[in-house]
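Please review this one.

:::
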Amino acid sequence: CPTGAPSPIPDDREAVLEHVDMGKAYVDEGLCLSHQGRVCGVCHDACSYPSDAIRLISRALPEVMDQCVGCGRCEERCPQVPAAIRVFTEDPGVRWVGPGEAPKDRGGPR
């Protein structure tokens, strides 16, 4: 970049996880296939840093970790329309809930 706005980061897992912050992925449990009882896990498989950024817990339920860099590969590959996992620059709170899911208090704005 001619302006020098983006800083170069070594092509190293630890450096990327430490220095890159484009946002964080959030799962809409009302849209997520695994939360609807169907095993999916596409978001985990698409992630460049599985088990650092996102992991699957029982029944392939995705859990986004704090080290998610917000690259959006999970959102891009999600088979749901609209995507059940999306990247936001801040917690979307209870307003981002899909069909059939009661809002959970995530501490976000009301």
About this structure: Residues 1 and 64 are 31 Å apart (CA to CA).
